[in-house]
Amino acid sequence: MSARTVVFLRHGRTEYNAAMRLQGQVDIPLDAVGHWQAEQGARSLAAAHSPTLVVASDLTRAAETAGYYGKATGLPVSLDERLRERGFGEWEGMTGEELSERWPDEYAAWRRGEEPARAGAESRADVAARMVAAVTEHADALDEKDTLVVVSHGAAITLAITAMLGLDPTGWRGISGLNNVHWSQLQRSGANAYPSWRLVAHNVGADFSLDEWSSGPDWIFQPTSA
Fold it and tell me: What are phi and psi of 156, to 5 degrees?
């Protein structure tokens, strides 16, 4: 038996997201906007899906986001380090401009879709393999009517979805990334069908304009009175 539905949820905004820095596996918490996104997104996702199990990356930004969803649904959250973001080695914490200056050839190759091997980055294939292994293990512990919610990271989720759709995660780049606290839904295909999963929704979020969602409401930045 296995869960019929898997929902991937990306974590909320961090200071690195706001500064356009490559996060990788640097363990950064949510910023104020990220906490607001996580709370609002949790309510919307809870209204759209009735989860059976919630598992999350053990990196703080994902665990914090999952905590809001767990509170909204009344479910505990399990952490799994296999759901971490792709590691980017020496590149972690840097902006695109900094990468272009220090590693011009490698950065240009990465932007073309190649692997930044010399930077010590984790390969796409390895990320996809650990993500799919984790999702499969958790899904297979559930019933065919159940829903698994996985709280993870942008690159990791994209690679997992690509692999679960039977596509090559090392070269196929046809799935766009997720905005912060947006989700994608996969549904199990019929018996003996290939691929085993179908993508039925992608990059879905709470009902806010993307500009407001990315920057947060004005009240977040208003000073509190003593």
Answer: -60, -45
**Dihedral, CA atoms, 152, 48, 12, 10, nearest 10 degrees?**
20
- Secondary structure E strands in 5-154: 5-10, 53-56, 77-79, 147-152
95 CA to centre of own chain: 20
202 in catalytic set: no
Task: Assess whether 11 carries a catalytic annotation.
Answer: yes
Residue 125 burial class via C-beta count within 10 angstroms: exposed 0-12, middle 13-18, buried 19 and up: middle
Return the bridge partners of 151, or none. Answer: 9, 56
Catalytic residue among 11, 35, 153, 182: 11
Sign of CA dihedral 214, 37, 14, 5: negative
Q: How far apart are CA 165 and CA 163, in angstroms?
A: 5
Residue 122's identity, in one-letter code, is E
pLDDT digits (tens, 9 = 90+) for 25-49: 999 999 999 999 999 999 999 999 9
* Catalytic choice (35, 39, 64, 85): 85
pLDDT tens per residue across span 75-120: 999 999 999 999 999 999 999 999 999 999 999 988 888 888 778 8
The predicted-structure confidence for 52-74, as pLDDT tens digits, reads as follows 999 999 999 999 999 999 999 99
Pairing, β 183-188 against β 5-10: antiparallel
